[in-house]
Amino acid sequence: MADRYSKFTKILAVSLAALALSGCAARKGPVRSIDEIYDEVHRKGGQDAVSMLRAGMRERMVYGVADPYVPLRTPDEVVPIWVPPYEEPRTGRRIDGHWEHTVTRRGEWFTE
Fold first, then answer.
1. What is the domain range of residue 107?
2. pLDDT tens column, 29-67
């Protein structure tokens, strides 16, 4: 009789543990792609930058400073180019594949 209760309590403990663990594993949150996350962060960053610039301009007006513009500079546009491995014709040396980076558009100053 005691052996029966021992087996019952073991089975009950294992069943409760399995139930608890399966409940945690079955819960899923919203799955978002990395592109969605990037787009959201990029959009919020732009909005925050604009609001900070506007707040800064308002503060300058309050203190009597009348700057006509806030100078901003856009960064250079850089593109990576993959150069595959090759053999140099003159020396016969093997050049491993590597990345080269080139500027396709220079940064500009915006004064508006």
1. 71-112
2. 677 788 887 778 777 777 787 787 777 766 655 555 555
